C-alpha cells in the first residue's frame, strides 16, 4: 500500500463552488455517484491515480449548496477492497446515505448481512482502473447478493458493453452502468454505441447513470452528451439515474465547474416531470426503498 503519488499521478482537486447554479436541483434529489477520501488511509498500489483528501463534510457542503438530499457513496478503485472510508461515511448519516462497495466473492454471508445493515446496496465491478474487481467475479457475486436486493455496478470500457449484454441472463440482480459505459460521444460510431446502451436498458432491472459528461466528450461544452441524454430520456426515462461524480477524480488537465454542471443537467433534462423521475424517483426507488 502507498500514500504517495510515486506510482500514480496526483489528479486535480475539485474547483471551489464559488456560486450557486442558476436553478437548484429539485427537492429530494439523489446523487447516485460520489466518492470520499480520508487523510492517512493507505492507497492501493498499483493504482490509476492519487486523489486529494475530500471528506463527507466536503460533499455535504456541496450537496447543500445545490439542493441534493441524499447520496450514494461509490468505492473508488484507489482503496481496493478496503471499504473502511466509505463505511465510516455511511455511519455518519445512515438515513440519507447508501454505499456501493468492492468485495471478494468469497466474503462470508455474515459480512454481507453486516454491510447491508450499514446501508450498502451493491458491489462495484471496475475493469477500467487498476485495483478494480474483474468480470470473472460476476457470476459468484450475483448469486451472493441477489437475496439481499443488492445490485452490480459496472465501470467498464465501451467494448465490454456487449459482454455485459451476454452476461445479463445469468445475473439475478439489478445492473447499473457508470457514466454511460464511458462511451466516446465524439466518435463517428457514437450513435451505434448509444444503441448498445439502449439495448441493455431494454432488459429487466438495468440502469445507466447520466453522469460525468467531461469523461465522454473531448471538448468542454460539447453538445454531444446532451444529445445522448435526450435520446435516452425519450426511450428509457425509468432506467436513468444522475450522479455528480464529485470530486471528479482522475482528471489531470481540466476540472469542470460544479455550478455549470448542474445548469447543463437542467438543460438536458428539460421537462420537470422527467427531471423529477431521473433525479428523485428512480434513485430513491433503487437505493432508498428500505
Question: What does the model show?
Answer:
The protein has helices at residues 56-66, 84-92, 109-118, 138-145, 161-167, 190-201, 213-216, 224-235, 258-269, 272-287, and strands at 29-34, 68-74, 97-101, 120-126, 151-155, 175-177, 206-211, 240-243. The model has no long low-confidence stretch (mean pLDDT 93). The chain has 290 residues and is of the alpha/beta class. It is built from 10 helices and 8 strands. It is 35% helix and 15% strand. Helix 5 packs parallel to helix 6 and helix 8 (224-235) packs across helix 9 (258-269). The longest helix is centred in the last third of the chain and has 16 residues, at 272-287. It has one domain: TIM Barrel. Strands 1-2-3-4-5-6-7-8 form an 8-stranded parallel sheet. Strand 6, helix 6 and strand 7 form a beta-alpha-beta unit.
Give a quick precis of the structure.
The chain is an alpha/beta fold and 290 residues long. It has helices at residues 56-66, 84-92, 109-118, 138-145, 161-167, 190-201, 213-216, 224-235, 258-269, 272-287, and strands at 29-34, 68-74, 97-101, 120-126, 151-155, 175-177, 206-211, 240-243.
Largest sheet: 8 strands, parallel
Task: State the total count of DSSP E strands.
Answer: 8
Q: How many discrete domains? A: 1
- What portion of residues is helical? 25-40%
CATH architecture: Alpha-Beta Barrel
Strand order of the largest sheet: 1-2-3-4-5-6-7-8
Q: Please tell me the overall pLDDT.
A: 93
Give me the CATH fold name. TIM Barrel
What is the SS-derived class? Answer: alpha/beta
**What is Rg?**
18 Å
Task: Choose one word for the global shape.
Answer: globular
Amino acid at each position: 500500500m502507498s500514500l504517495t503519488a510515486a506510482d500514480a499521478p496526483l489528479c486535480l482537486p475539485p474547483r471551489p463552488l464559488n456560486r450557486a447554479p442558476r436553478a437548484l436541483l429539485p427537492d429530494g434529489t439523489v446523487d447516485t455517484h460520489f466518492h470520499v477520501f480520508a487523510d492517512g488511509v493507505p492507497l492501493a498500489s498499483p493504482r490509476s491515480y492519487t486523489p486529494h483528501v475530500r471528506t463527507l463534510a466536503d460533499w455535504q457542503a456541496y450537496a447543500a449548496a445545490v439542493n441534493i438530499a441524499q447520496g450514494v457513496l461509490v468505492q473508488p478503485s484507489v482503496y481496493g477492497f478496503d471499504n473502511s472510508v466509505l463505511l465510516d461515511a455511511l455511519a455518519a448519516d445512515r438515513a440519507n446515505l447508501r454505499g456501493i462497495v468492492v468485495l471478494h466473492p468469497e466474503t462470508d454471508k455474515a459480512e454481507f448481512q453486516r454491510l447491508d445493515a450499514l446501508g450498502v446496496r451493491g458491489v462495484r465491478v471496475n475493469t477500467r482502473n487498476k485495483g478494480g474487481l474483474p468480470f470473472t467475479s460476476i457470476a459468484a457475486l450475483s448469486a451472493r447478493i441477489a437475496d439481499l436486493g443488492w445490485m452490480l455496478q459496472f465501470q467498464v470500457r465501451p467494448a465490454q458493453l456487449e459482454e455485459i449484454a451476454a452476461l445479463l441472463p445469468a445475473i439475478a440482480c439489478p445492473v447499473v452502468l457508470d457514466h454511460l459505459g464511458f462511451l466516446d460521444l465524439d466518435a463517428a460510431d457514437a450513435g451505434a454505441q448509444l444503441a448498445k446502451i439502449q439495448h441493455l436498458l431494454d432488459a429487466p432491472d438495468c440502469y445507466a447513470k447520466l453522469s460525468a459528461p467531461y469523461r465522454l466528450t473531448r471538448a468542454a461544452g460539447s453538445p454531444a452528451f446532451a444529445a445522448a441524454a435526450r435520446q435516452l430520456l425519450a426511450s428509457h426515462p425509468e432506467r436513468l439515474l444522475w450522479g455528480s461524480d464529485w470530486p471528479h477524480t482522475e482528471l489531470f488537465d481540466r476540472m469542470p465547474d460544479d455550478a455549470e454542471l448542474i445548469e447543463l443537467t437542467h438543460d438536458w433534462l428539460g421537462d420537470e416531470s422527467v427531471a423529477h423521475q431521473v433525479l428523485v424517483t428512480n434513485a430513491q426507488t433503487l437505493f432508498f426503498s428500505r
